[in-house]
Amino acid sequence: QVYLAESGGGTVQAGESLTLSCAGSGDIKDWYGMSWFRRAPGKERERVAGFLWSGGTTCYSDSIKDRFTIVRDHVRNTIDLQMNNLTPEDTAIYYCNTGVTGTEMLRGKAGDYWGPGTQVNVSS
Q1: What is the DSSP string of 34-59?
Q2: In the chain, which stretches have pLDDT less than 50?
């Protein structure tokens, strides 16, 4: 079993930044891919960024590329999503996810393990 917990959400104004963190515990495999997904009101779930524990390969959706960065914090052992130049369109609940292979993660597949989510609100 794997447990994930997100933190760092909040309310900011357009153009500001936030960093979300995902802390995991339990049976997290070295070959798992980790992803950040989001669900905005009235929209389908979107995978915004992915990270491979092994090797550190990253991937991003076109909607956030060059604004968001997914990184591993080795001190806190978290997967962070650094979000810059936020817009109202980034308003969503952001979820951490794992439980897939690296290949599956690179294809955007979601695994079985989800955190409860953290709310991000961006005002104009």
Answers
A1: EEEEEE-TTS--EEEEEEETTT--EE
A2: none
